[in-house]
């Protein structure tokens, strides 16, 4: 027999019915707030609908807003439109590809918080974040193979020729360096992302050509790691070690008969290798020849620092702490590098100052520089020998420049 009377059972049933009705009303209220009333006014009050048409009429303002010309914007939109377009349904009209691209570029160009863009564009916070990541993935997938392909042997030779013409450094395939990008401290990450700058960061390792274009990048290493260690474990470093990047064979330095391998240049954070030159260590060098070598190497190496400066100037997201998960921050950073190359390709090369004055000396007659023998195939000894060869070249009539002894 039940321990409840008939009257008590009726009361319990009424209470349960009342609770069910309350829960049903709550669920209905949640469904009606699926899109906030403020976001429903996107097509009347949203920044894109009210501002974009005005920007189209003013090229300068358009460039200031998106950090690219209208020409580049429409080419980029044409390339990724199919990848970011959403299907229209009976329930609601999707956000157009043009507006999606505008949201992403605005975020990258200004560094504004996602919440700020959410209010100005009348879009939900999660919607803005999703749009940014989806557009970034589309840019990487579609545009990156075009503007950042793996160089062929002929392309490497063109890059080396430009380094000699622009920065007076022969047989140079590029300048390499790392940039720490400040991010919000990831949860449960310990000290992995904590770098020497006393901030949490991930590292952008980049190889740059003579005109500040990114040849190859590696994004996402922990901030606590050194540039040299990051390179050793990166795909770029491993490919260079295994000679899998179509690098041309050894070639004589200009005006000489000394064959040396093609190299990249880096600072003191990188190890000396047969394919990577670094400065002589120490501030008080024992001879002027080493000081000249360090100056010439620094002159070629600084193009990567200039490229980072241009990247930060164009995409102001680098000027503040990035509020994103590390895996999404990697995607955002890589996208800015791709867009950097894309904009330079379609909006024209940036101008820069060169001080490579031509000397009046005749460089047509080959001379013999000091050859340093290599024994036993020791890579370290061979690397020292290659650096010595470059040092002597920069201090010879064939390789010197008029002002190098005055700095």
TrEMBL record:
InterPro entries reported in the protein's UniProt record: HARBI1-like, HARBI1_dom
Protein family (similarity comment): Belongs to the HARBI1 family.
Cell compartment(s), UniProt: Nucleus
Chief place of localization: nucleus
GO molecular function terms noted in the UniProt entry: hydrolase activity; metal ion binding; nuclease activity
Alphabetical keyword list: Hydrolase, Metal-binding, Nuclease, Nucleus
Keyword Kinase carried by entry: no
Record domain DDE Tnp4: where: 176-341
GO-annotated cellular components: nucleus
Cofactor(s) this protein cannot do without: a divalent metal cation
Keyword Nuclease: yes
Name used for this protein in its record: DDE Tnp4 domain-containing protein
């Amino acid at each position: 027999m039940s321990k409840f009377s008939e009257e008590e059972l009726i009361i319990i049933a009424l209470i349960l019915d009342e609770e069910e009705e309350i829960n049903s009303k709550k669920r209905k209220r949640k469904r009606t707030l699926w899109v906030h009333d403020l976001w429903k006014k996107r097509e009347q009050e949203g920044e894109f609908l009210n501002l974009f048409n005005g920007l189209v009429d003013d090229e300068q303002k358009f460039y200031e807003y998106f950090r690219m010309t209208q020409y580049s914007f429409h080419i980029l939109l044409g390339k990724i439109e199919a990848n970011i377009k959403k299907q229209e349904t009976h329930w609601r009209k999707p956000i157009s590809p043009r507006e999606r691209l505008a949201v992403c570029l605005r975020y990258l160009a200004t560094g504004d918080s996602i919440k700020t863009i959410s209010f100005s564009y009348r879009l939900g916070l999660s919607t803005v974040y999703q749009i940014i990541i989806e557009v970034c993935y589309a840019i990487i997938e579609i545009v990156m193979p075009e503007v950042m392909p793996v160089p062929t042997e002929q392309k490497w030779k063109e890059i080396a020729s430009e380094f000699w013409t622009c920065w007076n450094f022969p047989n140079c395939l590029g300048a390499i360096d790392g940039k720490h990008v400040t991010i919000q401290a990831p949860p449960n990450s310990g000290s992995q992302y904590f770098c020497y700058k006393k901030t949490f960061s991930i590292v952008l390792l980049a190889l740059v050509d003579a005109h500040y274009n990114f040849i190859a990048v590696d994004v996402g290493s922990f901030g606590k790691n050194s540039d040299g260690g990051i390179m050793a474990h990166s795909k770029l470093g491993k490919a260079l070690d295994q000679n899998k990047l179509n690098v041309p064979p050894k070639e004589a330095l200009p005006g000489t008969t000394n064959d040396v391998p093609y190299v990249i240049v880096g600072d003191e954070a990188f190890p000396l290798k047969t394919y990577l030159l670094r400065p002589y260590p120490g501030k008080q060098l024992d001879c002027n020849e080493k000081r000249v070598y360090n100056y010439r190497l620094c002159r070629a190496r600084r193009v990567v620092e200039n490229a980072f400066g241009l990247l930060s100037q164009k995409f102001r997201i680098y000027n503040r702490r990035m509020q994103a998960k590390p895996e999404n921050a990697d995607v955002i950073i890589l996208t800015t590098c791709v867009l950097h190359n894309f904009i330079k390709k379609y909006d024209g090369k940036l101008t820069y100052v060169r001080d490579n004055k031509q000397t009046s000396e005749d460089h047509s007659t080959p001379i013999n520089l000091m050859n340093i023998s290599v024994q036993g195939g020791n890579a370290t000894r061979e690397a020292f020998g290659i650096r010595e060869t470059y040092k002597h070249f920069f201090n010879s009539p064939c390789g010197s420049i008029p002002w190098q002894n005055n700095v």
